[in-house]
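Researcher: Going back to the complex we discussed earlier. I've cleaned up the inputs and rechecked each line, so this should be the final set. Can you rerun the prediction on the complete assembly and write out the structure?
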Amino acid sequence: AQSVSQHNHHVILSEAASLELGCNYSYGGTVNLFWYVQYPGQHLQLLLKYFSGDPLVKGIKGFEAEFIKSKFSFNLRKPSVQWSDTAEYFCAVGNNDMRFGAGTRLTVKP
Amino acid sequence: NAGVTQTPKFQVLKTGQSMTLQCAQDMNHNSMYWYRQDPGMGLRLIYYSASEGTTDKGEVPNGYNVSRLNKREFSLRLESAAPSQTSVYFCASSEYEVPPYNEQFFGPGTRLTVL
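Model: Rerun complete. Updated structure for the full complex:
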């Protein structure tokens, strides 16, 4: 059965700290991977996606993620977080049958 | 261009009542989806419609029905609401069901409480 695991439930960082959020997946088909973000009071929006090609993908707002096939991972990174990055982050895998992780709440302290 | 819209924003029901959540998109997308979001569980797919005239079950379809009314609209119906259906419901759409066009665009959500 396909599934997505996000091991960090709540991460608290100070501004300018580096961020890495873990995502591991189990999926039987062609892997299409996504990171979505949900800012407080807003709906989900896409940060970045991976379908094929370069396993290091860059998204909006300075985020990037690396697909490591051998580790079934798609971790999200940002070198220097800002207070405005405070949000919940969801990893997802699939096509129509999209599976989302439980989410990681990121709090950035000013 | 409003994107994906959902009505209502909030709803309180009593156990056993029925209701329909409405979703519409103005992006001319082919595929539409209904999710529920519960604390600590992320989003779980209830039903989806890959194209007008088709619907398929997702991960948690029990207790729900859907109707793809036309290309723009996809409704979710709770026939007999139960407290376990208390959740935030999100509708989403995508241009097609296959990559690279399957990025999903989400609506603002409906917060449903069943007493």
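Model: Worth noting: Chain A is about 0% helix and 50% strand.
Researcher: Good, that matches what I expected from the previous run.
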